[in-house]
């Protein structure tokens, strides 16, 4: 058996491409194995880019519908579905072509087929219409991404329900849609369809929506959503689902026992795409299908690294790219017996998550909930947009931003917010947390007036005053 590769990357999405490109540019003989029929990865084909393209249209329709709030008149916006599909497909094709060109021109070998580990240093590679062959490498990076997680609800699998992968293909615009799940995916699509003018019902298992966010963020989001007509059924689960000529019929466990809808979106999260890789057989440490990694993207096996949604505790694209680059650099260090003496790390302490709802939500670094659960003492400073000049101009009703800082040193530890463009302006706080700035350091940064970004400075001022 002969393999010309020092490093093999499994998975050709954002993390995998970043890892393979980085390793090859550093001089390693590298291969990338991709099993998908179409190159491009989740973000481009079925995730970030198509969903945000659709959300942009929904937001503009919503703005037109709310024209009276801003002193002008406009008629009810009419969605041109063929034109929207054409725009969506054109944008995604442009993004895809850029990625395909980058992958085909990259200094690594692109191998189209599936892989399964036979040992920690060899995989069985299976290309279509070819005999399987063994490939050996001194080190590997696993970057196989994630798949929609679908609950085992009686009758569900026999119905034409949608997942997020289906919705971004824009199959139809229903009059009534039910959404199972109130996390990031569920809420983004709730606001997407509300913007399109649909009647939206969100079914949430917990006592509140957005269970992974701070309660004050969730409360503000629910208030804003209800004012726009989104209906929430909390502490409710789907007991069975059926589909007929009149659409979907859901039997529910909560106060509302039955719900009918024209479309059903299952948005109960995503699961790591690790099945079928043979990871259990080689003894790699995992938790609920997710490969466990540290800040160096290292797994429990010295010669195997992992990056992106199959491993990241914060499954977002920019971290997937960073983890892929870190994984490649550290994998090559291990080949040279320079094991972690100068290892790269991905920034767990400043990890950022953004929700493109309306209004947007953002979480950076340490959350207030996590601080309380872990017994970490913090100072919290806040600024509401209703009391902030540009926030008032933008029409924010329930939005706010907040920052968390260490009471002894004043170092910024976390930030969160809900409001207009907080994902965009939140990068200010991500940079500050990454650079370990203190409250005093941040207040030396000038903020243009009037801007939405000023709200973060006011929250820092509030925290500074609280610190005495």
Structural features, described:
The chain has 3 domains: 7-147 and 272-335, FAD/NAD(P)-binding domain, CATH 3.50.50.60; 156-268, FAD/NAD(P)-binding domain, CATH 3.50.50; 359-466, FAD/NAD-linked reductase, C-terminal dimerisation domain (Enolase-like, domain 1), CATH 3.30.390. Helix content is 33%, strand content 23%. It has 15 helices and 24 strands. The protein has helices at residues 14-25, 41-45, 48-65, 81-105, 164-167, 184-195, 215-227, 279-282, 317-335, 368-373, 389-394, 422-425, 427-434, 439-443, 454-466; strands spanning 7-10, 30-34, 109-112, 114-119, 122-126, 133-136, 139-142, 146-148, 176-180, 199-203, 231-233, 238-244, 247-252, 258-261, 263-266, 270-272, 286-287, 290-291, 304-306, 352-355, 360-365, 379-384, 400-405, 412-419. α1 links the parallel β1 and β2. α3 packs antiparallel against α4. 44% of the residues are buried. The model has no long low-confidence stretch (mean pLDDT 93). Residues 355-459 form the Pyridine nucleotide-disulphide oxidoreductase dimerisation domain. Its cofactor is FAD. This is NAD(P)/FAD-dependent oxidoreductase.
């Amino acid at each position: 058996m002969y393999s010309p590769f020092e490093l093999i990357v499994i998975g050709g999405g954002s993390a995998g491409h970043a890892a393979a490109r980085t390793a090859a540019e550093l001089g390693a003989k590298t291969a990338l194995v991709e099993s998908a029929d179409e190159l491009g990865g989740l973000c481009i084909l079925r995730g970030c880019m198509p969903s945000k393209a659709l959300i942009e249209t929904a937001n503009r329709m919503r703005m037109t519908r709310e024209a009276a709030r801003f002193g002008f008149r406009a008629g009810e916006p009419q969605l041109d579905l063929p034109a929207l599909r054409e725009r969506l497909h054109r944008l995604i094709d442009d993004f895809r072509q850029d990625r395909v060109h980058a992958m085909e021109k990259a200094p690594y070998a692109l191998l189209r087929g599936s892989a399964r580990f036979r040992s920690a240093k060899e995989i069985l590679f299976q290309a279509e219409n070819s005999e399987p062959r063994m490939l050996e490498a001194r080190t590997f990076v696993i970057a196989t991404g994630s798949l929609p997680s679908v609950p085992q609800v009686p009758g569900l699998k026999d119905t034409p329900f949608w997942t997020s992968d289906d919705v971004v293909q824009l199959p139809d615009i229903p009059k009534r849609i039910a959404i199972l799940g109130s996390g990031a995916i569920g809420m983004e699509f709730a606001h997407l369809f509300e913007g399109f003018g649909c009647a939206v019902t969100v079914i949430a298992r917990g006592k509140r929506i957005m269970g992974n966010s701070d309660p004050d963020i969730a409360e503000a989001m629910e208030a804003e959503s209800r004012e726009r007509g989104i209906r929430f059924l909390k502490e409710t689960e789907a007991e069975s689902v059926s589909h007929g000529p009149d659409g979907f019929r859901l039997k529910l466990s909560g106060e509302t026992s039955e719900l009918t809808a024209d479309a059903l979106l299952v948005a109960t999260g995503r699961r790591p795409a690790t099945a079928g890789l043979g990871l259990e057989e080689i003894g790699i440490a995992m938790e609920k299908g997710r490969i466990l990694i540290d800040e160096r993207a290292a797994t429990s096996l010295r010669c195997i690294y992992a990056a992106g949604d199959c491993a990241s505790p914060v499954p977002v694209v920019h971290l997937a790219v960073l983890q892929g680059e870190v994984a490649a650099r550290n994998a090559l260090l291990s080949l040279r017996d320079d094991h972690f003496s100068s290892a790269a790390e991905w920034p767990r302490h400043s990890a950022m998550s953004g929700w493109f709802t309306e209004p947007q939500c953002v979480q950076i670094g340490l959350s207030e909930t996590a601080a309380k659960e872990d017994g970490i003492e913090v100072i919290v400073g806040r600024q509401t947009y209703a009391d902030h000049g540009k926030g008032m101009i933008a029409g924010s009703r329930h939005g706010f931003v907040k920052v968390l800082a260490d009471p002894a040193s004043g170092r910024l530890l976390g930030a969160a917010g809900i409001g207009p463009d907080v994902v965009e302006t939140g990068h200010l706080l991500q940079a500050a947390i990454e650079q370990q700035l203190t409250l005093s350091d941040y207040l030396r940064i000038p903020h243009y007036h009037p801007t939405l970004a000023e709200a973060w400075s006011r929250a820092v001022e509030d925290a500074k005053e609280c610190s005495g």
